[in-house]
Write a sequence for this structure.
């Protein structure tokens, strides 16, 4: 219960950081999707069970609330990414820091492709597709960079404790 509360507080802290602080310093395609990185972390490393599924969906809904896109788009995408990572988790070496970087990069690409497909199915907006496609690779690279910085900092701290 305490772990779930900590993850929820971290989710709100990352949301505030992503929505208010980072856009002030970084331009749009280079703002990392911190909530997606938390979903990746929950899917690969944490053992939270069904609560993780609910947290992933709620993170997506919070992201939709503040991003101005259709409500449920990120919620569905985050949920799909979380569930796929939970299925693949047993076949992967989850203690690898390189894995987190690669999974963060691929998850950002999958999130972009899922968003494009859902917008193609349910939206009539034509001008959004080139914008999303142009921002997809820089967003994935920035997410991989942030994931590498976080895993390096946590592994350095773990070595320091030992």
């Amino acid at each position: 219960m305490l772990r779930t509360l900590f993850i929820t507080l971290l989710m709100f802290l990352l949301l505030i950081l992503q929505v208010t602080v980072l856009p002030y310093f970084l331009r749009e395609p280079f703002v990392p999707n911190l909530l997606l990185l938390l979903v990746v972390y929950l899917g690969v490393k944490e053992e939270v069970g069904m609560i993780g599924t609910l947290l992933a969906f709620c993170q997506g809904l919070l992201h939709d609330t503040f991003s101005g896109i259709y409500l449920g788009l990120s919620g569905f995408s985050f949920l799909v990414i979380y569930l796929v990572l939970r299925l693949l988790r047993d076949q992967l070496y989850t203690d690898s820091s390189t894995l987190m970087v690669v999974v963060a990069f691929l998850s950002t690409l999958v999130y972009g492709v899922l968003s494009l497909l859902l917008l193609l199915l349910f939206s009539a907006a034509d001008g959004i597709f080139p914008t999303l496609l142009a921002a997809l690779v820089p967003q994935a690279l920035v997410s991989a960079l942030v994931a590498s910085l976080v895993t390096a900092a946590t592994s350095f701290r773990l070595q320091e404790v030992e």
